[in-house]
Amino acid sequence: MTSTHLYTLHDLIVRHWPHVVFVISVVSGAAAAIHAAMNKSDVRAAIAWVGVILMSPIFGPLLYLVAGINRVRRDRISQQRDSSLKDYTNQKAIPVADVAEDSGTQFMSMRTLGDRISGFPLLDDNHIRILNGGDEAYPAMLRAIRAARRTIGLQTYIFDDDRSGREFVDALAEAHARGVEIRVLIDAVGSKYSRPPIIRLLRKKGITAALFMTNPLGMKMPYANLRSHRKILIVDGRHGFTGGMNIREGFVSALAGRNVASDTHFQVEGPVVLQLTSVFAHDWEFTTHETLPYAVWCSDELKNVPQPSVPARCVRSGPDRFINSTHNMLLGAFAVAQRHIRIQSPYFLPDQILLGALNTAARRGIQVDVVIPGHNNLRLVDYAMTAQLDQIIRNGCRVWRASGNFNHSKLITIDGGWSYVGSSNMDPRSLRLNFELDIEVYSHELAAQIELMIDSEIERADPCSLAELAALPFRKRLRNKIIWLASPYL
Protein backbone atom coordinates (compact mmCIF):
# COMPACT_ATOMS: atom_id res chain seq x y z
CA MET A 1 0.00 0.00 0.00
CA THR A 2 1.46 3.36 -1.01
CA SER A 3 1.92 6.34 1.30
CA THR A 4 -0.86 8.12 -0.63
CA HIS A 5 -3.26 5.31 0.18
CA LEU A 6 -2.19 5.32 3.84
CA TYR A 7 -2.73 9.06 4.01
CA THR A 8 -6.15 8.70 2.43
CA LEU A 9 -7.14 5.99 4.93
CA HIS A 10 -5.89 8.08 7.84
CA ASP A 11 -7.68 11.12 6.51
CA LEU A 12 -10.88 9.09 6.14
CA ILE A 13 -10.72 7.87 9.74
CA VAL A 14 -9.99 11.34 11.08
CA ARG A 15 -12.88 12.77 9.13
CA HIS A 16 -15.42 10.08 9.83
CA TRP A 17 -14.40 8.72 13.24
CA PRO A 18 -17.76 9.66 14.82
CA HIS A 19 -19.51 7.51 12.23
CA VAL A 20 -17.06 4.65 12.80
CA VAL A 21 -17.59 4.81 16.56
CA PHE A 22 -21.35 4.92 16.02
CA VAL A 23 -21.31 1.82 13.80
CA ILE A 24 -19.06 -0.08 16.24
CA SER A 25 -21.27 0.86 19.21
CA VAL A 26 -24.45 -0.16 17.38
CA VAL A 27 -23.05 -3.50 16.22
CA SER A 28 -21.44 -4.38 19.57
CA GLY A 29 -24.48 -3.20 21.52
CA ALA A 30 -26.88 -5.18 19.36
CA ALA A 31 -24.75 -8.31 19.61
CA ALA A 32 -24.43 -8.01 23.39
CA ALA A 33 -28.15 -7.30 23.87
CA ILE A 34 -29.13 -10.28 21.70
CA HIS A 35 -26.70 -12.53 23.59
CA ALA A 36 -28.13 -11.41 26.95
CA ALA A 37 -31.73 -11.91 25.83
CA MET A 38 -31.01 -15.36 24.40
CA ASN A 39 -28.81 -16.71 27.21
CA LYS A 40 -30.10 -15.27 30.50
CA SER A 41 -32.64 -17.56 32.14
CA ASP A 42 -33.68 -14.94 34.72
CA VAL A 43 -35.86 -12.31 33.06
CA ARG A 44 -34.76 -9.64 35.56
CA ALA A 45 -31.10 -10.28 34.77
CA ALA A 46 -31.83 -10.18 31.05
CA ILE A 47 -33.74 -6.88 31.33
CA ALA A 48 -31.01 -5.37 33.52
CA TRP A 49 -28.21 -6.29 31.12
CA VAL A 50 -30.12 -5.17 28.02
CA GLY A 51 -30.85 -1.88 29.78
CA VAL A 52 -27.18 -1.35 30.70
CA ILE A 53 -26.11 -2.16 27.13
CA LEU A 54 -28.64 0.15 25.49
CA MET A 55 -28.05 3.03 27.91
CA SER A 56 -24.29 2.84 27.44
CA PRO A 57 -23.62 1.55 23.91
CA ILE A 58 -19.82 1.34 24.34
CA PHE A 59 -19.21 0.77 28.06
CA GLY A 60 -22.25 -1.52 28.39
CA PRO A 61 -21.07 -4.22 25.93
CA LEU A 62 -17.58 -4.12 27.49
CA LEU A 63 -19.03 -4.58 30.98
CA TYR A 64 -21.22 -7.42 29.72
CA LEU A 65 -18.22 -9.07 28.07
CA VAL A 66 -16.30 -9.01 31.36
CA ALA A 67 -18.99 -9.65 33.97
CA GLY A 68 -22.14 -10.81 32.21
CA ILE A 69 -21.14 -13.85 30.16
CA ASN A 70 -21.11 -17.26 31.79
CA ARG A 71 -17.95 -18.78 30.34
CA VAL A 72 -18.53 -22.07 32.10
CA ARG A 73 -20.17 -24.21 29.47
CA ARG A 74 -22.80 -26.38 31.07
CA ASP A 75 -22.73 -29.04 28.38
CA ARG A 76 -18.95 -29.43 28.67
CA ILE A 77 -19.08 -29.81 32.45
CA SER A 78 -21.93 -32.29 32.13
CA GLN A 79 -19.91 -34.39 29.69
CA GLN A 80 -16.92 -34.38 32.04
CA ARG A 81 -19.03 -35.39 34.99
CA ASP A 82 -20.89 -38.09 33.12
CA SER A 83 -17.84 -39.78 31.55
CA SER A 84 -14.38 -39.61 33.10
CA LEU A 85 -15.49 -39.51 36.74
CA LYS A 86 -18.26 -42.09 36.81
CA ASP A 87 -16.57 -44.11 39.54
CA TYR A 88 -17.13 -41.33 42.07
CA THR A 89 -20.91 -41.68 41.87
CA ASN A 90 -20.97 -45.48 41.98
CA GLN A 91 -21.20 -45.54 45.74
CA LYS A 92 -21.56 -48.85 47.57
CA ALA A 93 -23.35 -47.38 50.56
CA ILE A 94 -27.11 -47.96 50.72
CA PRO A 95 -29.22 -44.79 50.44
CA VAL A 96 -31.43 -43.87 53.39
CA ALA A 97 -35.07 -44.71 52.78
CA ASP A 98 -36.83 -43.22 55.83
CA VAL A 99 -35.78 -40.00 57.58
CA ALA A 100 -38.84 -39.71 59.82
CA GLU A 101 -37.08 -41.15 62.87
CA ASP A 102 -33.97 -38.98 62.38
CA SER A 103 -35.77 -35.70 61.70
CA GLY A 104 -39.56 -35.88 61.46
CA THR A 105 -42.24 -36.95 59.01
CA GLN A 106 -42.38 -33.53 57.30
CA PHE A 107 -38.85 -34.09 55.99
CA MET A 108 -39.73 -37.13 53.88
CA SER A 109 -40.50 -34.77 51.02
CA MET A 110 -37.13 -33.02 51.54
CA ARG A 111 -35.39 -36.35 51.03
CA THR A 112 -37.23 -36.74 47.69
CA LEU A 113 -36.38 -33.18 46.71
CA GLY A 114 -32.71 -33.72 47.49
CA ASP A 115 -32.68 -36.93 45.44
CA ARG A 116 -33.88 -35.01 42.39
CA ILE A 117 -31.67 -31.95 42.86
CA SER A 118 -28.31 -32.89 44.29
CA GLY A 119 -27.21 -35.82 42.14
CA PHE A 120 -25.98 -37.54 45.31
CA PRO A 121 -27.91 -40.11 47.37
CA LEU A 122 -28.74 -39.47 51.01
CA LEU A 123 -26.45 -41.83 52.94
CA ASP A 124 -26.39 -42.98 56.55
CA ASP A 125 -23.47 -43.71 58.89
CA ASN A 126 -21.87 -40.26 58.74
CA HIS A 127 -20.33 -38.58 61.76
CA ILE A 128 -20.32 -34.78 61.68
CA ARG A 129 -18.51 -32.69 64.26
CA ILE A 130 -18.94 -28.92 64.60
CA LEU A 131 -15.70 -26.91 64.69
CA ASN A 132 -16.04 -23.39 66.07
CA GLY A 133 -13.69 -20.85 64.53
CA GLY A 134 -10.10 -21.22 63.50
CA ASP A 135 -9.15 -22.14 67.05
CA GLU A 136 -10.91 -25.50 66.61
CA ALA A 137 -10.98 -25.97 62.84
CA TYR A 138 -7.35 -25.26 61.90
CA PRO A 139 -5.73 -27.59 64.49
CA ALA A 140 -8.08 -30.42 63.46
CA MET A 141 -7.32 -29.85 59.77
CA LEU A 142 -3.56 -29.63 60.41
CA ARG A 143 -3.63 -32.86 62.46
CA ALA A 144 -5.30 -34.64 59.56
CA ILE A 145 -2.74 -33.26 57.08
CA ARG A 146 0.18 -34.26 59.31
CA ALA A 147 -1.22 -37.78 59.64
CA ALA A 148 -1.91 -38.20 55.89
CA ARG A 149 -0.53 -41.37 54.31
CA ARG A 150 -1.68 -41.27 50.66
CA THR A 151 -3.57 -38.20 49.41
CA ILE A 152 -4.60 -34.66 50.35
CA GLY A 153 -7.07 -32.58 48.38
CA LEU A 154 -7.56 -28.96 49.49
CA GLN A 155 -9.94 -26.47 47.86
CA THR A 156 -10.66 -23.00 49.19
CA TYR A 157 -11.75 -19.54 48.16
CA ILE A 158 -9.20 -17.54 50.19
CA PHE A 159 -5.81 -18.96 51.22
CA ASP A 160 -3.87 -16.04 52.66
CA ASP A 161 -0.11 -15.78 52.74
CA ASP A 162 -0.07 -15.02 56.45
CA ARG A 163 0.89 -16.90 59.61
CA SER A 164 -2.03 -19.33 59.40
CA GLY A 165 -1.60 -19.84 55.67
CA ARG A 166 2.11 -20.54 56.01
CA GLU A 167 1.43 -23.07 58.77
CA PHE A 168 -0.78 -24.97 56.34
CA VAL A 169 1.88 -24.72 53.63
CA ASP A 170 4.51 -26.13 56.03
CA ALA A 171 2.24 -29.06 56.94
CA LEU A 172 1.52 -29.75 53.26
CA ALA A 173 5.24 -29.57 52.45
CA GLU A 174 6.02 -32.10 55.17
CA ALA A 175 3.34 -34.41 53.78
CA HIS A 176 4.74 -33.94 50.27
CA ALA A 177 8.20 -34.92 51.55
CA ARG A 178 6.66 -38.14 52.95
CA GLY A 179 5.39 -39.04 49.49
CA VAL A 180 1.76 -37.97 49.97
CA GLU A 181 0.06 -36.98 46.71
CA ILE A 182 -1.31 -33.43 47.09
CA ARG A 183 -3.58 -31.17 45.01
CA VAL A 184 -4.48 -27.62 46.07
CA LEU A 185 -7.15 -25.60 44.24
CA ILE A 186 -7.57 -21.89 45.05
CA ASP A 187 -10.04 -19.52 43.45
CA ALA A 188 -8.34 -17.01 41.15
CA VAL A 189 -10.17 -14.04 42.70
CA GLY A 190 -9.73 -15.30 46.26
CA SER A 191 -5.99 -15.73 45.71
CA LYS A 192 -5.67 -11.95 45.28
CA TYR A 193 -6.71 -11.22 48.86
CA SER A 194 -3.07 -11.43 49.96
CA ARG A 195 0.16 -10.26 48.38
CA PRO A 196 2.09 -12.15 47.22
CA PRO A 197 -0.45 -14.90 46.46
CA ILE A 198 0.33 -18.05 48.39
CA ILE A 199 0.24 -20.24 45.28
CA ARG A 200 3.81 -19.12 44.57
CA LEU A 201 4.97 -20.50 47.92
CA LEU A 202 3.06 -23.74 47.37
CA ARG A 203 4.70 -24.30 44.02
CA LYS A 204 8.11 -23.36 45.42
CA LYS A 205 7.64 -26.17 47.97
CA GLY A 206 6.87 -28.62 45.13
CA ILE A 207 3.14 -28.84 45.91
CA THR A 208 0.85 -29.19 42.91
CA ALA A 209 -1.51 -26.20 43.00
CA ALA A 210 -3.83 -24.46 40.54
CA LEU A 211 -6.10 -21.41 40.32
CA PHE A 212 -9.80 -21.90 39.53
CA MET A 213 -11.21 -19.76 36.68
CA THR A 214 -8.17 -17.64 35.98
CA ASN A 215 -8.89 -14.50 33.99
CA PRO A 216 -7.36 -14.83 30.51
CA LEU A 217 -6.86 -11.06 30.34
CA GLY A 218 -5.03 -10.97 33.66
CA MET A 219 -7.32 -8.19 34.88
CA LYS A 220 -7.72 -7.47 38.57
CA MET A 221 -11.45 -7.64 39.19
CA PRO A 222 -12.41 -7.94 42.87
CA TYR A 223 -16.03 -8.48 41.86
CA ALA A 224 -15.36 -10.88 38.99
CA ASN A 225 -18.09 -13.44 38.51
CA LEU A 226 -17.99 -17.24 38.57
CA ARG A 227 -15.87 -17.89 41.62
CA SER A 228 -15.29 -21.16 43.42
CA HIS A 229 -16.46 -20.42 46.94
CA ARG A 230 -16.19 -24.06 48.05
CA LYS A 231 -14.11 -25.08 51.06
CA ILE A 232 -13.04 -28.73 51.02
CA LEU A 233 -10.26 -30.73 52.63
CA ILE A 234 -10.09 -34.50 52.06
CA VAL A 235 -7.32 -36.61 53.56
CA ASP A 236 -6.72 -40.22 52.45
CA GLY A 237 -10.29 -40.36 51.12
CA ARG A 238 -11.50 -40.89 54.71
CA HIS A 239 -11.37 -37.61 56.60
CA GLY A 240 -13.30 -34.62 55.30
CA PHE A 241 -13.66 -30.99 56.31
CA THR A 242 -16.06 -28.46 54.83
CA GLY A 243 -18.05 -25.40 55.77
CA GLY A 244 -17.69 -21.65 55.43
CA MET A 245 -14.18 -20.98 56.66
CA ASN A 246 -11.32 -19.73 54.50
CA ILE A 247 -7.68 -20.05 55.54
CA ARG A 248 -6.55 -16.78 57.11
CA GLU A 249 -5.23 -15.70 60.49
CA GLY A 250 -8.21 -13.44 61.15
CA PHE A 251 -10.09 -16.51 62.46
CA VAL A 252 -7.43 -17.41 65.08
CA SER A 253 -7.75 -15.63 68.42
CA ALA A 254 -4.04 -15.92 69.26
CA LEU A 255 -3.18 -14.08 66.03
CA ALA A 256 -6.11 -11.71 65.51
CA GLY A 257 -6.59 -10.82 69.17
CA ARG A 258 -9.71 -8.85 70.03
CA ASN A 259 -10.64 -8.52 66.34
CA VAL A 260 -10.89 -12.27 65.74
CA ALA A 261 -13.74 -13.25 63.39
CA SER A 262 -16.04 -16.21 64.01
CA ASP A 263 -17.01 -18.97 61.61
CA THR A 264 -18.25 -22.56 61.65
CA HIS A 265 -16.61 -25.53 59.97
CA PHE A 266 -17.45 -29.24 60.01
CA GLN A 267 -15.36 -32.39 60.30
CA VAL A 268 -16.94 -35.28 58.41
CA GLU A 269 -16.39 -39.03 58.43
CA GLY A 270 -18.37 -41.67 56.59
CA PRO A 271 -19.76 -42.15 53.06
CA VAL A 272 -20.39 -38.42 52.53
CA VAL A 273 -16.59 -37.98 52.34
CA LEU A 274 -16.75 -39.74 48.97
CA GLN A 275 -19.17 -37.05 47.80
CA LEU A 276 -16.76 -34.35 48.96
CA THR A 277 -14.00 -36.09 47.02
CA SER A 278 -16.20 -36.27 43.95
CA VAL A 279 -16.82 -32.51 43.99
CA PHE A 280 -13.12 -31.78 44.45
CA ALA A 281 -12.13 -34.20 41.68
CA HIS A 282 -14.64 -32.62 39.28
CA ASP A 283 -13.37 -29.11 39.97
CA TRP A 284 -9.75 -30.20 39.71
CA GLU A 285 -10.30 -31.88 36.35
CA PHE A 286 -12.26 -28.90 35.04
CA THR A 287 -9.39 -26.60 36.01
CA THR A 288 -6.34 -28.71 35.09
CA HIS A 289 -7.71 -31.49 32.82
CA GLU A 290 -6.10 -34.01 35.16
CA THR A 291 -8.30 -36.93 36.28
CA LEU A 292 -7.76 -38.06 39.86
CA PRO A 293 -8.05 -41.88 39.88
CA TYR A 294 -10.79 -43.25 42.10
CA ALA A 295 -8.60 -46.09 43.35
CA VAL A 296 -5.98 -43.62 44.59
CA TRP A 297 -8.11 -40.82 45.98
CA CYS A 298 -10.99 -42.73 47.57
CA SER A 299 -11.09 -45.19 50.44
CA ASP A 300 -13.24 -48.20 51.26
CA GLU A 301 -12.63 -47.56 54.98
CA LEU A 302 -15.74 -45.44 55.41
CA LYS A 303 -17.53 -47.60 57.97
CA ASN A 304 -17.17 -47.87 61.75
CA VAL A 305 -17.29 -44.08 62.11
CA PRO A 306 -17.65 -42.47 65.55
CA GLN A 307 -21.15 -42.16 66.95
CA PRO A 308 -23.66 -40.65 66.65
CA SER A 309 -24.04 -41.33 62.93
CA VAL A 310 -26.42 -39.28 60.81
CA PRO A 311 -27.95 -39.30 57.30
CA ALA A 312 -26.34 -36.62 55.13
CA ARG A 313 -25.49 -35.67 51.57
CA CYS A 314 -23.62 -33.00 49.67
CA VAL A 315 -25.47 -30.44 47.58
CA ARG A 316 -23.54 -28.73 44.80
CA SER A 317 -24.58 -25.42 43.30
CA GLY A 318 -23.04 -23.16 40.69
CA PRO A 319 -23.51 -21.58 37.27
CA ASP A 320 -23.66 -24.99 35.57
CA ARG A 321 -26.36 -27.66 35.57
CA PHE A 322 -26.67 -27.28 39.38
CA ILE A 323 -27.43 -23.56 39.20
CA ASN A 324 -30.66 -23.67 41.25
CA SER A 325 -29.78 -26.48 43.65
CA THR A 326 -29.47 -24.52 46.90
CA HIS A 327 -32.25 -22.12 45.92
CA ASN A 328 -34.64 -25.04 45.40
CA MET A 329 -33.50 -26.82 48.57
CA LEU A 330 -34.22 -23.72 50.65
CA LEU A 331 -37.63 -23.21 49.05
CA GLY A 332 -38.50 -26.81 49.91
CA ALA A 333 -37.23 -26.49 53.47
CA PHE A 334 -39.16 -23.27 54.16
CA ALA A 335 -42.31 -24.88 52.75
CA VAL A 336 -42.19 -27.94 55.05
CA ALA A 337 -41.39 -26.00 58.22
CA GLN A 338 -43.99 -26.46 60.93
CA ARG A 339 -42.54 -24.63 63.94
CA HIS A 340 -39.28 -22.75 63.57
CA ILE A 341 -36.86 -21.57 60.88
CA ARG A 342 -33.46 -20.37 62.09
CA ILE A 343 -31.02 -18.68 59.69
CA GLN A 344 -27.59 -17.26 60.39
CA SER A 345 -25.94 -15.59 57.40
CA PRO A 346 -23.22 -12.94 57.08
CA TYR A 347 -24.66 -11.75 53.77
CA PHE A 348 -28.45 -11.98 53.81
CA LEU A 349 -29.77 -10.81 50.44
CA PRO A 350 -32.37 -13.38 49.35
CA ASP A 351 -34.22 -12.80 46.09
CA GLN A 352 -37.94 -12.06 45.95
CA ILE A 353 -38.84 -15.76 45.68
CA LEU A 354 -36.99 -16.70 48.86
CA LEU A 355 -38.27 -13.58 50.60
CA GLY A 356 -41.78 -14.65 49.63
CA ALA A 357 -41.17 -18.14 51.01
CA LEU A 358 -39.96 -16.76 54.35
CA ASN A 359 -42.84 -14.30 54.53
CA THR A 360 -45.34 -17.05 53.74
CA ALA A 361 -43.86 -19.21 56.48
CA ALA A 362 -44.16 -16.36 58.97
CA ARG A 363 -47.78 -15.79 57.95
CA ARG A 364 -48.45 -19.49 58.53
CA GLY A 365 -47.37 -18.98 62.14
CA ILE A 366 -43.85 -20.32 61.77
CA GLN A 367 -41.31 -18.48 63.91
CA VAL A 368 -38.64 -17.18 61.54
CA ASP A 369 -35.39 -15.91 63.07
CA VAL A 370 -32.66 -14.39 60.93
CA VAL A 371 -29.31 -13.49 62.51
CA ILE A 372 -26.99 -11.11 60.64
CA PRO A 373 -23.77 -9.42 61.78
CA GLY A 374 -24.00 -6.19 63.71
CA HIS A 375 -20.70 -5.18 62.14
CA ASN A 376 -20.16 -6.53 58.62
CA ASN A 377 -16.78 -6.90 56.93
CA LEU A 378 -18.34 -5.75 53.63
CA ARG A 379 -19.96 -2.35 54.06
CA LEU A 380 -21.66 -2.32 50.67
CA VAL A 381 -23.32 -5.67 51.39
CA ASP A 382 -24.45 -4.38 54.78
CA TYR A 383 -26.03 -1.32 53.13
CA ALA A 384 -27.87 -3.52 50.62
CA MET A 385 -29.06 -5.91 53.35
CA THR A 386 -30.41 -3.05 55.42
CA ALA A 387 -32.32 -1.75 52.41
CA GLN A 388 -34.52 -4.84 52.16
CA LEU A 389 -34.90 -5.95 55.78
CA ASP A 390 -38.26 -4.19 56.01
CA GLN A 391 -39.65 -6.64 53.45
CA ILE A 392 -39.51 -9.53 55.91
CA ILE A 393 -39.87 -7.71 59.23
CA ARG A 394 -43.27 -6.27 58.25
CA ASN A 395 -44.51 -9.82 57.57
CA GLY A 396 -43.59 -11.20 60.98
CA CYS A 397 -40.02 -12.46 60.55
CA ARG A 398 -37.60 -11.52 63.30
CA VAL A 399 -34.22 -10.08 62.33
CA TRP A 400 -31.38 -9.86 64.82
CA ARG A 401 -28.12 -7.91 64.52
CA ALA A 402 -25.49 -9.88 66.39
CA SER A 403 -23.20 -8.13 68.81
CA GLY A 404 -19.47 -8.70 69.03
CA ASN A 405 -17.04 -9.38 66.22
CA PHE A 406 -17.94 -10.37 62.67
CA ASN A 407 -19.42 -13.87 62.31
CA HIS A 408 -18.98 -15.54 58.90
CA SER A 409 -21.09 -18.64 59.70
CA LYS A 410 -23.74 -19.93 57.27
CA LEU A 411 -26.23 -22.02 59.24
CA ILE A 412 -29.88 -23.02 58.72
CA THR A 413 -32.09 -25.32 60.80
CA ILE A 414 -35.73 -26.27 60.37
CA ASP A 415 -37.91 -27.58 63.23
CA GLY A 416 -34.92 -28.95 65.14
CA GLY A 417 -34.55 -31.86 62.72
CA TRP A 418 -32.96 -30.68 59.45
CA SER A 419 -29.82 -28.63 58.96
CA TYR A 420 -28.22 -27.02 55.93
CA VAL A 421 -24.61 -25.93 56.36
CA GLY A 422 -21.65 -25.14 54.14
CA SER A 423 -20.26 -22.37 51.99
CA SER A 424 -23.44 -20.75 50.59
CA ASN A 425 -24.51 -17.30 51.68
CA MET A 426 -28.12 -16.34 51.14
CA ASP A 427 -27.36 -13.77 48.46
CA PRO A 428 -27.53 -13.59 44.64
CA ARG A 429 -23.82 -14.28 44.20
CA SER A 430 -23.92 -17.53 46.16
CA LEU A 431 -27.26 -18.61 44.72
CA ARG A 432 -26.46 -17.98 41.05
CA LEU A 433 -22.83 -17.01 40.35
CA ASN A 434 -20.55 -18.87 42.76
CA PHE A 435 -19.68 -22.54 42.82
CA GLU A 436 -20.80 -23.59 46.31
CA LEU A 437 -20.94 -26.74 48.40
CA ASP A 438 -23.33 -27.47 51.26
CA ILE A 439 -24.42 -30.47 53.27
CA GLU A 440 -27.96 -31.29 54.31
CA VAL A 441 -28.15 -33.30 57.52
CA TYR A 442 -31.13 -35.15 58.97
CA SER A 443 -30.45 -35.24 62.70
CA HIS A 444 -32.12 -33.95 65.85
CA GLU A 445 -28.78 -33.97 67.67
CA LEU A 446 -26.86 -31.86 65.15
CA ALA A 447 -29.80 -29.48 64.65
CA ALA A 448 -30.00 -29.00 68.43
CA GLN A 449 -26.31 -28.04 68.54
CA ILE A 450 -26.73 -25.53 65.72
CA GLU A 451 -29.92 -24.14 67.26
CA LEU A 452 -28.03 -23.58 70.50
CA MET A 453 -25.33 -21.67 68.61
CA ILE A 454 -27.88 -19.48 66.81
CA ASP A 455 -29.99 -18.92 69.93
CA SER A 456 -26.91 -17.86 71.90
CA GLU A 457 -26.25 -15.26 69.19
CA ILE A 458 -29.87 -14.08 69.48
CA GLU A 459 -29.57 -13.68 73.26
CA ARG A 460 -26.75 -11.17 72.74
CA ALA A 461 -28.22 -9.56 69.60
CA ASP A 462 -30.27 -6.42 69.03
CA PRO A 463 -33.66 -6.83 67.33
CA CYS A 464 -34.10 -4.90 64.11
CA SER A 465 -37.42 -3.07 63.85
CA LEU A 466 -39.34 -1.12 61.21
CA ALA A 467 -39.18 1.96 63.41
CA GLU A 468 -35.40 1.71 63.58
CA LEU A 469 -35.13 1.38 59.79
CA ALA A 470 -37.51 4.31 59.23
CA ALA A 471 -35.48 6.45 61.65
CA LEU A 472 -32.39 6.28 59.50
CA PRO A 473 -31.57 9.62 57.85
CA PHE A 474 -32.91 9.95 54.31
CA ARG A 475 -29.41 10.15 52.81
CA LYS A 476 -28.55 6.76 54.37
CA ARG A 477 -31.78 5.16 53.25
CA LEU A 478 -31.20 6.47 49.73
CA ARG A 479 -27.60 5.23 49.78
CA ASN A 480 -28.75 1.80 50.94
CA LYS A 481 -31.36 1.56 48.19
CA ILE A 482 -28.87 2.57 45.50
CA ILE A 483 -26.39 -0.06 46.68
CA TRP A 484 -29.25 -2.59 46.92
CA LEU A 485 -29.93 -2.12 43.18
CA ALA A 486 -26.44 -3.54 42.53
CA SER A 487 -26.84 -6.41 45.01
CA PRO A 488 -26.63 -9.21 42.40
CA TYR A 489 -23.00 -8.27 41.79
CA LEU A 490 -21.76 -7.41 45.28
From TrEMBL:
**Entries under Gene3D superfamilies matching the protein:** Endonuclease Chain A
Localization in the cell = Cell membrane
Q: Name one GO biological process term.
A: cardiolipin biosynthetic process
Q: Does the keyword section mention Transmembrane helix? A: yes
Residues annotated as domain PLD phosphodiesterase: 224-251, 403-430
Give the domain of life.
Bacteria
The protein's UniProt keywords, in alphabetical order, are: Cell membrane, Membrane, Transmembrane, Transmembrane helix
- Indicate what this protein is called per its UniProt record: Cardiolipin synthase
Q: Which organism is it from?
A: Candidimonas nitroreducens
